[in-house]
Amino acid sequence: MTATTATTELPTGPSDAAETVAPAPDDAAAHTSVSPTARTLWRRSRWYLFTALALLLVGLLIAGISGQSTFPALDPRSGDREGTLAAVHLLEKRGITVRTVDTERDLEAAVRTPGATVVVPRSDLLSTAQLRRLAAVPRGEGRLVLIAPQQPALDQLMPGSRVAGQTEGPANLVDTLTTPAGCTLPEANRAGSAELGGLTYLRGADDTGCYARHGHPTLLHRASGGRETVALGTGDPLTNDRIAEEGNASLALGLLGSRPQLVWYLPDYSAPAPSVARKSFTDYVPAGWYWATLQLAVAAGLAALWRARRLGPVVTEPLPVVVRATETTEGRARLYQRARAHGRAADALRRAARHRLAAALGIPATTGDVPEAALCAAVAARLGHPAADVQQVLYGPAPTDDAALLRLTDDLDALERQVRQP
Amino acid sequence: MALTGRTALLAALGALVVGLVLPSWTGIAVATLPVLLGVLADLALAAPVRSLRLERGGDTSVRLGEDATVELTVTNPSRRPLRARIRDAWPPSAWRPGTAFAASRHTVTVPAGERRRLTTPLGPTRRGDHHAAKVTVRSLGPLGLAARQGSHTVPWTVRALPPFTSRKHLPSRLARLRELDGRTSVLTRGQGTEFDSLREYLPGDDVRSIDWRASARRNTVAVRTWRPERDRHVLIVLDTGRTSAGRVGDAPRLDAALDAALLLAALATKAGDRVDLLAHDTRKRIGIAGRTPTDVLPAFTDALATLEPALVETDFRALTANALRMAPHRSLIVLLTGLDARPIEEGLLPQLPLLTKRHEVVLASVADPRLDELAAARGTVQDIYGAAAAEQTRADRRRTADRLTRAGVTVLDAPPTTIAPAVADAYLALKAAGRL
Hints:
The structure holds two protein chains of two kinds.
Chain A: E1 8-9, H1 14-21, H2 38-66, H3 85-93, E2 97-101, H4 104-112, E3 116-120, H5 128-136, E4 143-147, H6 151-157, E5 162-163, E6 174-179, H7 186-191, E7 194-198, E8 201-202, E9 207-213, E10 216-224, E11 227-232, H8 248-256, E12 261-265, H9 287-308, E13 323-324, H10 327-339, H11 342-361, H12 372-383, H13 387-395, H14 402-420
Parallel strand pairs in A: 2-12, 3-4, 3-12, 4-11
Antiparallel strand pairs in A: 5-8, 6-7, 9-10, 10-11
Chain B: E1 2-3, H1 5-20, H2 25-45, E2 53-58, E3 61-63, E4 68-75, E5 82-88, H3 100-104, E6 105-110, E7 115-122, E8 128-131, E9 135-140, E10 146-152, E11 157-161, H4 170-181, E12 194-200, H5 212-217, E13 222-227, E14 233-239, E15 246-248, E16 251-252, H6 253-270, E17 274-280, E18 284-288, H7 293-305, H8 316-326, E19 331-336, H9 341-348, H10 352-358, E20 360-366, H11 369-376, H12 381-406, E21 409-414, H13 416-432
Domain DUF4350 (chain A): 78-256
Transmembrane segments (chain A): 47-67
Region (Disordered) (chain A): 1-31
């Protein structure tokens, strides 16, 4: 059946039209609408909205309070003991622009820029491939400050230098203590004693080593043309906690403030290192495709809205109870079977057969059951069997197992059949 | 508010613009904003739904199994034309199976200030009242991107009457009735026990019917003529307790009982008897008494339409009291109930003398053909036990029927297809025997 779309045009007289265009406000038909008005919607949902708003505010507040502790060590935005906000403030006061970059591409661009100091706080977390790419970048006239670089970083960025005390296994870390400069580097000379420690290094051929501990410098400086590379054994002299001690502040300003720009590399350390071994399929997909997919997602959202809106609610109705009339009989059959009630079942079957035989042979069954002798005699006479056999089938002992019950049923059926069609 | 597929399609086509021309946030804004503006424009320009005026008309009752049509008049009082999808929602059992979706949805255009009539075809599959659910209107905007949507409640009830499938048996029973009545030309004397008139003796008349007293008053020999009793009282009592809820085949026992009640009511009304109806479980559900002959069948059909079995034990004491109240003089009481041993022996038998003392009682029960199938099943051990249980049930029913028969009740036990003619035949037999 198709939808009944046949509509009937009704005669609309002038008076009718006038009436329909301006319906009386108290017309009963006008009150059939049950959709909520904007006012009722607002009244119904305002408390939910208020609650949601309050929850959002509380959530933001909590996030704002606890958000400080999420910065990693040596983060220029962090006011923690481990942060470097104080040093950055000092630098900014001297007119140095400080910015952070978080992608490798931006880092390489910063390294390429002349007149920039680039700080790489955790060079040990960069993969060898990343370090190799970084080393391959044609550097501008700037300074690259590596904080606590390990051997792989040194191999790529300061070839020739080595971490001291490291034959194999982890390098020995020395405690951060006040250390005299003891070198010719102008920044170190200006600063004098400073608190240094951490990794100690073995100088390369054209390196300047300062702040030696146990005979090995904790600060290496290498200059080639205008390009300088500094390895610092520890970031401690830059932290908020220690910047005010000894010559730390002066050393920090000297190391980081030699160029008008300071770029701090802060990648998302928790993100997995991008696979760089091979370009995957997605690298060959043009960028437009991603944006088109985003737009398709918008379309999918609209399609979901389109399909989700029903034309009216689902209509429900109470359903009648379904009770089969033979349920108790079937239940009784299962009870008989479970209890192995052969005798009871045989009794019921025999009684029914006797009734039918009596009816077929015209023996009156006045008082419930059929007279035994009369029935057996009548059946025996009709079939020509001995009365004892008939009596055995109709009134014999109860069967003791399922097989005997099946045999009895067959006998009863055969007897009935023979009596009806001799 | 509702969106259409066109909105999603436009947004999807926007992906081409974004992907090929402007792969950026700007591109997404360029592709999405016009769609959103179109949606807003549609919402603003669609004809209002709230102010629509909806009225109903059409069928209010239909026999179960036949089709009904309900009309919905949509008046658009606004100044904008209404282009709408309308769903006229009814409960699932109000539709012919499989047609619910197609039949409930209409597409209609109503110009400003005009009205249109929509026709919804219903085909109830369950007896009883079917109430219209909401009418939902989705008013599309001129661009077809978005629609205003709202619902109206326009009450209407279609009552699905009992199918009365046994009315096919009515003509043959009426013919039998006319034979009894002597209205057809039969050679035998009109049977019956009620005195009709005196007429002159003709050779061949039964000499036993000569009225000597009347013959003495006139010169000729007068004989009495007889006709079947008229203006007797028949009370149909329906037991709507738990035993009537059991399903025989696909329908509850009560449905077969209703059918039998309707056939008996139609037949007895034609025969000139008064027919009353009582439906009872723990309390009186329906009591219809004293209707004029033309009104009996419509009144019964209407009242029985909404009758449903209750899952309670029937209170035969209250039932008997109510039946006696409705039958103060000698009546034929036709009790449509079950033959289950427990309720009959504990509930009805103690009360039966009150009924049989003054009334003729017929007890009709709907038998289950499934019981016979079970009893005839052979093969596995399970079948044999099933047969034994079925024979046990049949023996119990037979014993109950025997006890009732001994108490002076005419007992009928017939499957749903033949219960109605069986009750009608029992009525005719009692009428012919002059036992009403």
